[in-house]
Amino acid sequence: MIAELATTEMPYANGHAVSPTVNGHANGHVHSNGIHKLHTIASPPAKRAAQSAEERLTEFRSLVGKADGDPLRIVGVGAGAWGSVFVAMLQDAYGYMRDKVQIRIWRREKMYFGALLENVVTNLQEAVWDADVVINGLPSTETRPVFEEIGRYWRERRTVPIIISLAKGVEAALSPEPHIVTPTQMIHDATNVPIDRILYLGGPNIAAEIYNMEYANARICGSEQWGKPLARFLRQPHFMVWENPDLVTHEVMGGLKNVYAIGAGMVAALTNESATSKSVYFAHCTSEMVFITHLLTEEPEKLAGPLLADTYVTLLKGRNAWYGQKVAQGELRPDMGDSFQGKGTIQGVSAVEAFYELLRQPSLSVMHPEDHKMVIPVELCPILQTLYRILIRREATSEAILEALRDENMYDPRRRIEIAQNKGFYLPQLLGSPRVLHQK
Questions:
Q1: What is the 3-state secondary structure (H, E, C) of the chain?
Q2: What is the average pLDDT across 284-292?
Q3: Which of 70, 82, 250, 345 has the smallest C-beta neighbourhood within 10 Å, fewest atoms?
């Protein structure tokens, strides 16, 4: 299934199209009658892979409580680049066992995937009403309204589904205390599905490359009860999945790197891809990310590898960096919105606003390293401030990002990291849900 998708030219997260002949060499694929297909020769490794898939499906069906003759129903909600590729991977791995699994995907209209992915559904109620596993492939900005609608369909439901969210984005809520709201929390609020049955999957990957079966890895984050079996179920030879119990922090970090990817794209375009300028930007943006991470989690060192890897690939080849480049080149403007046909939603734009609004709250003030006075956290994040002025307030041009880097008053990024490493910096309420905050 994934290989067959290469016959259709389609845009992905990096803003480029996938060629019908990409990856058509020495990778276990053949072209037949113009269609790019997997080899069907039953080699010993292929037989072992098929047996392994059947075993994984049987194990997961047992955990969900499926009886013989009742297929495991998996539904993707939203058919953007990553959501579509993710569902196509499951179709490739398990779709041939039709008596044991049914895989569908919902989107508002049947477009380029309609003839390639099986069971494309345009009626949301039909798609989700009896689903055992729901995959949220929607942008974070669309997650709440769509799942509120789904929640209405599930009011009379007797069984509780498992939800895997792929969305990377956040909202800021300012009452009863300033805190971040993630897509999994939005889904929980909208559907009343217990939070231990809602998980987040993220990692350093680009949809178009996974679509071409490049090796990649990801983490499924959430309750161990479902995280461990889902990691086994989702794992494939070219896609390693690990389990991690830290749901919200990984989810927030997935949104944070999109913020700085936009700035990276601007710097690349404005400096004609200067490696030196991009490295200066990388030093400052990562120090801001370290600073923000220390505000959000008590053990930020556990996030260092995953966050840096996800940031690296997003700065190299993500849609947010592409957007920053286009804005700097004058081909796009902030007032044109954050959703573009063929590219999807640029989730970094809403994340800029969310993180800025959150970190400008006086109740979160911290000590300034040079002035030795209390300041709002965003005062220590000049790049975030600049992106807010460019994209949200629209009072500055993209050249302001270079001005911020060249500001003589900009101090060594190492200093910001040293400040952040103060154990008193951690603000646990930033990741608290409204219900928890009400109970305090």
A1: CCHHHHHCCCECCCCCECCCCCCCCCCCEEEECCEEEECCCCCHHHHHHHHHHHHHHHHHHHHHCCCCCCCEEEEEECCCHHHHHHHHHHHHHHCCCCCCEEEEEECCCCCCCCCCCCCEECCHHHHHCCCCEEEECCCHHHHHHHHHHHHHHCCCCCCCCEEEECCCCCEEECCCCCEEECHHHHHHHHHCCCHHHEEEEECCCCHHHHHCCCCEEEEEECCHHHHHHHHHHHCECCEEEEEECCHHHHHHHHHHHHHHHHHHHHHHHHCCCCHHHHHHHHHHHHHHHHHHHHHHCCCHHHHHHHHHHHHHHHHHHCHHHHHHHHHHCCCCCHHHCCEECCCEECHHHHHHHHHHHHHCCHHHCEECCCCCCEECHHHHCHHHHHHHHHHCCCCCCCCHHHHHHCCCCCCCHHHHHHHHCCHHHCCHHHHCCHHHHHHC
A2: 89
A3: 70
Annotated catalytic residue: which of 168, 257, 317, 326?
Answer: 257
- Does residue 294 lie in a domain region? yes
Per-residue pLDDT at 290: 86
Q: pLDDT tens digits, residue range 302-328?
A: 666 667 788 888 888 889 999 999 999
Residues 336, 217 share a domain: no
What is the CATH number for 85? Answer: 3.40.50
Same domain, 240 and 347: no
Same-domain status, 87 and 235: yes
Number of domains in the chain: 2
pTM over 0.85: no
Determine the pLDDT at residue 48: 53
Which residues form the domain of 23? 3-137+203-245
User: Do 337 and 227 belong together in one domain?
Assistant: no
Does residue 329 lie within any of the structural domains?
yes
